[in-house]
Amino acid sequence: MSYGNDIKKLAELSKIHFTLEELKEMEKDMASIMTLMDSIKTADIPQLQEIPLPDGMKNLREDAAEVKSSPKASDSQEEDSPPQTFTIPRIVE
Amino acid sequence: MSIIEQRQLLDRREISAIELTRSYLERIEEHSGLEAFLHVNNACEAAAAKAQARIDSGESLAFTGIPVGLKDNLCTFDMPTTCASKMLKGYIPPYDATVVAKLRSQDAVFLGKLNMDEFAMGATTTTSYYKKTRNPFDPNRVPGGSSGGSAAAVSAGLCSAALGSDTGGSIRQPASFCGITGMRPTYGMVSRYGCVAFASSLDQVGPLGLSAKDCAQLLAAVAGADGHDQTSQHSTGLFAERSSAGMADDFMNSRYEQFPEKAPEIHLGVVKELLGESVEPETRQAVLNAAEWYRNAGCQVSEISIPILEHAVPAYYLISSAEASANLSRFDGVRYGHRINKPSSYEDLVEKSRAEGFGWEVKRRILLGSYALCSGYYDDYYIKATRLANALRSEYSRLFETYDAILSPASPMAAFAFDAVPEDPAQLYLADICTVGAALAGLPSLSTPCGLTSDGLPIGLMMTGSRWSDSKILCLADAFERSFKRPAPKINAS
Amino acid sequence: MKYEAVIGLEIHAELETATKAFCSCLNAFGDERNTNVCPVCLGLPGALPVLNRKAVELAISAGMMLGCSISRSTRWDRKNYFYPDLTKAYQISQLYAPLCLGGGLEINSRFIRLNRIHLEEDAGKLIHEKGVTIMDYNRAGVPLIEIVTEPDLRSPDDAVEFVEKVRQTLVYGGICDGKMEQGSLRVDANISVMPEGSKIYGTRSEIKNINSFRFIKKALAHEIERQMDLVSEGGRVVQETRRYDENSGETFSMRTKEDAHDYRYFPDPDIPSLLILEEEIGRIRAGLTEAPASRFSRYTSALGLSPRDASAILSRRRTADFFDAAVSAGANPKNAANSIKGEIQRLLNESGDETQPISMPIQDFVKALALAQENKITQEGLKIALSAMYSEKIGIGEVAKKYSLYVSEDNAAIKEAVESVIASDPASVAKYKNGNEKVLSFLLGQCMKKLRGKALPQTIGEELKKALER
Question: Are strands C69-70 and C100-101 parallel, antiparallel or unpaired?
Fold first, then answer.
């Protein structure tokens, strides 16, 4: 079974850049791996109901703002470090 | 020396915390060739001093001043957390994992961060970007993985115990390769908050130690439901709302500690499918000998069969890779982690940073995982795999109505040489057959040494119990350990 | 061949919780960039989502108010894609087992069905500057409900009215603050055209992130026209996402790779599936406020208000609640409605504060209305009373005394006012005497001003006429 096109598509979906050689190498590896994985396709496995815990909503989180306490009690940590900045090359929408 | 013994020496002031820590630091230095540590904590002695102050004021807890190691996928705000990947080179998290915070609150001493397979994907610790950890029993052989650094460090006496993580066998298999005890607890017993996720429904943080007793101590110190992890639960029955000291007692004082008297009530099952052709003869024999020991001690031991284990390995790889493919998507070079220089666009930034940051095994798993989730393949692979996990869970439940624990090898073979690591990924994956079942079913499972190969390599006996029967299997292992002399690597002088 | 438009909407509404959907960061608008963030919403390694109970309760409330059935067993799924505003590169959403199914609203006497309502998390914001894009993750992780309609809408006006009704319902329920200018409510539209009367839908295009009513109308109108022109010339509509450009008034294709949009949904293993208990459903239902649609029917049928008056009262939940309370306390519905849509609304508009409750005890309001009804104070007096009670926060008794509102039986004051007005304006008096009836109401108005509500208009009018006859 050829996974060639699939590998390229998967690489795009996973946002990992591969060189041509790497794609070929990966194709080989995936072929071997998929032979093992394919055994499950034909396996006869009963379908059983999965029952979630009957806890209702009580274990969900209370809607209360957390007082942010830094885990670091050390003196070297600045009290009010400025908020982080995150930038990337300009996106064209 | 066991943790309890260290605790007594510290509390009786026969040894100081700093002395104890220094002795470990010296050993770490002496055996640096093992390459177990990725980072040695340069603030150890300060931590030991703090612990000493606490001991002096009479307020020590189980782990005050006890030097432990942490697998490098556990977030520590004062040490790098790299997951043995280039992607997180030098990354220092802004918070502690819950398990780390719990130990820190007891003033445990963190000796450093331990080597592992990259992002916990592997069974040899050879996929680490930084180093290859060596098996203390034979430096030309792998320590197992992915918690190979943790297992080697404990085995060589470089720390008194260590935390690792087990997704498909990553604590149990390296424990068996390195001749120590290692356990994955019931899924949900220990918080995963701060343990960098590989496969969310399978990951569990667990202890590695020189004995089941030490593992019980460490497990008790880190177990407990956590508000930061909605998959963690309050354990039922035995441990509900117990202090960690209480839990440790429970681990050891359940009826199973009265071993010789209660033995006839104990039913053990030996898994036929895990003692077949694919298992090395010496391994098979050692495990059967262990089973025989239990029988001679008075237990009822019989052979059991779990036919659907045949599909456990593919199911495990499909589920874990699918979850991993999503869990690792956050590593994109935007907010933290490896980032290429001068990206030409957002896509370029992400695709190249990930290409450079991730190793080959990680990339394989990500692609496999994405594949299993793609529309058109989702039903055939991912859904089928989850159905198998369900069926397996159900099968184990059925067995545990009769059996107290299930025995098998922790691995089909003992530690192999570095140059004998299978090239073919499928072959490598199949070696996980012994350990993946318990992971898929969320069951507690441990490995304890039960023999040596003619090459002098440790063989591990794996014991799996029903959910929340962690204390039971620890006690059963403890009973065995009391009569079985744990093999010591030649380098281990003390 | 004539074509008709087919429109389906996806409305995203940010929930009014104190904290985000999966972490305890503040759910707030307008704070300094990246100050309401933590390891969870930043997607740091090792962080895990923890579901907010209030978010689930508000989502269930929304479902109940919009007529949906609430799923007792519900689950969250990961929607995987890469974008810089999405910190984990997956959005926690619901595909397989959403919280709410079905439901709908009536507009223009047609029922618009809902497909589902589900709870998910919002992404961060992108700020484009010279050569870079900056991310602000304050909004990342804010809880959203996504309300998906069936393709039952047929025109831009339909869409506007539907969104207005949904918005009003959510604001009423305290579920969403409805501030579209702040992005609390955003609309994606799916538009297609088909031959009139056909049963087969055409290919649809999608316009995303419309955040004002004006744009809903314009963008949809343009896109419908574009599609109709296209198909009537034999062309084919391409399934794609388009963007509405305000300046040109046109939609443009975003040319995104269709292949890449395999979201690979799978159940999020970090969030246990939820089984909602009957008593929890009961508790939420008991705490619901009556939806605007239901109040409207009640006001127009049982209470006899005109649709216009009913809508005026319903424009704010506070005024509707106030009206309901007044009627319960015995006020005449029509009179209460008049005062509320008039003076009370004016006072609220002036104050500018949309969050404070109406600071007037219901008993005082009802009493004031009664006094006016019994002609003990005039309509003008009533206005003065309401304004004073609202601003000065004093009771009706005190107000009436302070401003001498009680209609005086004393005709002397009236006569005095009438004489003074006549004396100061002989020109108008002359006009009246020459047969100009209209100037009478002008003169009456002058008298009323002088008397400042102390006498009933009829009484003043009688005295005025008498005086003019002389």
Answer: antiparallel
Neighbours, chain A (3 or more CB pairs < 8 A): B, C
pLDDT attached to residue B248? 53
Q: Strand locations in B290-342, DSSP E?
A: 300-304
Dihedral over Cα of C54, C56, C59, C63: its sign: negative
pLDDT band at residue B251 under the 50/70/90 scheme: low
Cite the active site residues of B. Answer: 71, 146, 170
Residue B450 DSSP one-character state = E
Q: Is B194 an interface residue toward C (CB < 8 Å)?
A: yes
At residue B308's C-alpha, the angle toward residues B307 and B310, to 5°, is 85
Taking only the tens place, the pLDDT of each residue in C351-375 is 877 777 788 889 999 999 998 888 8
In this prediction, residues B71-76 reach a mean pLDDT of 98
Strand order in the sheet with C125-129: A86-89, C132-136, C125-129
- Top-confidence residue, C437 or C331: C331
CB contact, 8 Å: A46 with chain C?
A: no
- Chain centroid, CA B447 distance in Å: 10
Distance set, CA B138 to CA B234, B448, B489, B491 (Å): 41, 19, 8, 10
Check CB contact under 8 Å for A39 and B346. Answer: no
Instruction: Write out the H or E segment, with its range, that includes residue C93.
Output: strand C90-93
Instruction: Quick: pLDDT tens for B449-458.
Output: 999 999 999 9
Strands, E, within C122-226: which ranges? 125-129, 132-136, 143-149, 185-195, 205-210
pLDDT band at B247 (very low <50, low <70, confident <90, very high): low
Using CA coordinates, name the residue in chain B closest to C86: B330
B374 CB neighbours in chain C (<8 A) are: 262, 264
State residue B240's pLDDT score.
41
pLDDT of residue A28: 94
For residue range B160-210, list pLDDT tens digits in order: 999 999 999 999 999 999 999 999 999 999 999 999 999 999 999 999 999
Where b means 16+ CB within 10 Å and e means fewer, B188-214 reads bbbbbbbbbbbbbbbbbbbbbbbbbbb
Q: Which residues in chain C have their CB less than 8 angstroms from residue B229's CB?
A: 48, 50, 270
- Among B138-142, C237-241, C294-298, whose mean pLDDT is lowest? C237-241
Contacts with C, B 331-350, CB within 8 Å: 331-332, 334-336, 346, 350
Beta-bridge mates of residue C205: C191
pLDDT higher than 90, residue B491: no
Partner residue facing C46 (CB), from B93, B323, B375: B93
Listed residue (C373, C370, C348, C369) closest to C359, CA to CA: C348
Closest partner residue to B426 (CB to CB) among A6, A36, A91 is: A36
A17 — contact with chain C (CB < 8 Å)? no
Domain B3-262+474-483 falls under CATH 3.40.50.300: no
| Cβ-based interface (< 8 Å): residues of C facing B | 39, 42-51, 78, 80, 82, 84, 87-90, 133, 135, 262, 264-266, 268-272
Whether complex ipTM tops 0.90 = yes
CA B449 to chain centre: 15
Q: State mean pLDDT over B405-414.
A: 97
From chain B, the residues in CB contact with A72 under 8 A are 77-78
Chain B: nearest CA to C174, how far in angstroms? 27
With tokens 């916990």, the residue in question is B120
Domain ranges across chain A: 18-42
Q: What is the mean pLDDT of chain A?
A: 80
In chain C, the domains with their CATH numbers are 3-279 (no CATH), 290-402 (no CATH), 411-469 (1.10.10.410)
* B/C interface, count of CB pairs below 8 Å: 102
Whether residues C269 and B332 touch (CB distance < 8 A) is answered with no
